[in-house]
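User: tokens in, sequence out, please.
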């Protein structure tokens, strides 16, 4: 099996190669992005799991720069879509235009692809565009294809969407419904940098420093690694743990803790169990291990469950957020 410069004889060697490549990728990203190691880890896990991410953070935290850097290091086509209230579905998927032959004067329709036809998509402020356009993006995320004038066009592979939301200035926005939020593998919250990190950010961005990034992975290699994730064996007790965690978030489930019944209206569905196992598989092989353990599932609990459990009025009155519920559940399981 060959993939560019990568020659792989078996899955064991492929795991070792992936682990080495990820270290190189992180090293290159660190030339541009200071700190945010946990967010970078989660982004890479989502990418190699064939998932998508919703990234929530205030302006100015380098969300765009981060995803652009990831695309450059992995030699992938990058596209940024700035979502606005007047954006239509065809603006992102593409549209048909009329071409006229200069000789025969015959007119034909020709499809002009939109910004969705890229490997890595930054969907900036997804909650600022109407539901019709949100649905077009989410359909492309799920199906990896778009349809225009009855013709289906496949999107390039790998295909990864990072959608951002601004937690402030919620006036005039269109919040994503829970069913559509469920299509995102991870919900990540980007915090302010520490004092030391921010000082280093200011020093590098206000000087003549310009990072020269090396291309570490190709699209073909990433697809091989994504396929490898599906082949990773998982012990029954690890799957049992993931399914148990998801089921305990449901207030009507047998054995749910009392605080779940008091604070939660709706718990996580089966997709949460699937994503926790996929994330655990990916994390294990990224770290050079051949099978995930329960700690790998715990790593995925917060980003997978954060947007999948809905707190009720009692929780809001007590100032309890979904993150608090997940942390308490993690301690008690």
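Assistant: Sequence out:
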């Amino acid at each position: 099996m060959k993939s560019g410069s990568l020659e792989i004889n078996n899955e064991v060697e492929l795991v070792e190669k992936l682990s080495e490549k990820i270290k190189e990728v992180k090293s290159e990203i660190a030339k541009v992005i200071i700190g945010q190691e946990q967010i970078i880890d989660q982004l890479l896990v989502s990418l190699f799991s064939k998932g998508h991410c919703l990234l929530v953070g205030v302006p100015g935290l380098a969300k765009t720069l981060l995803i652009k850097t990831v695309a450059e290091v992995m030699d992938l086509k990058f596209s940024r879509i700035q979502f606005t209230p007047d954006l239509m579905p065809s603006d992102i998927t593409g549209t048909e235009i009329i071409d006229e032959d200069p000789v025969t004067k015959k007119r034909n329709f020709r499809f002009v692809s939109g910004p969705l036809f890229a490997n890595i998509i930054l969907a900036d402020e997804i909650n600022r565009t109407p539901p019709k356009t949100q649905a077009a993006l989410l359909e492309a995320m799920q199906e990896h294809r778009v349809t225009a004038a009855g013709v289906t066009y496949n999107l390039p592979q790998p295909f990864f969407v990072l959608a951002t939301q601004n937690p402030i200035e919620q006036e005039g926005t269109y919040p994503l419904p829970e069913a559509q939020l469920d299509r995102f593998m991870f919900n990540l919250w980007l915090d302010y940098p520490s004092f030391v990190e921010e000082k280093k950010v200011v020093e590098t961005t206000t000087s003549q420093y310009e990072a020269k990034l090396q291309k570490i992975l190709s699209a073909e290699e990433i697809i091989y690694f994504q396929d490898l994730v599906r082949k990773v064996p998982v012990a029954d007790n690890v799957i049992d743990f993931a399914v148990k965690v998801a089921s305990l978030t449901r207030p009507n489930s047998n054995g749910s803790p009392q605080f779940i019944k008091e604070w939660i209206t709706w718990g996580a569905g089966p997709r949460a169990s699937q994503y926790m196992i996929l994330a655990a598989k990916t994390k294990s092989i990224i770290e050079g291990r051949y099978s995930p353990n329960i700690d790998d599932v715990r790593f995925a609990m917060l980003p997978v469950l954060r947007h999948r459990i809905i707190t009720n009025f009692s929780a809001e009155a007590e100032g309890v957020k979904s993150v608090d519920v997940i942390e308490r559940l993690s301690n008690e399981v």
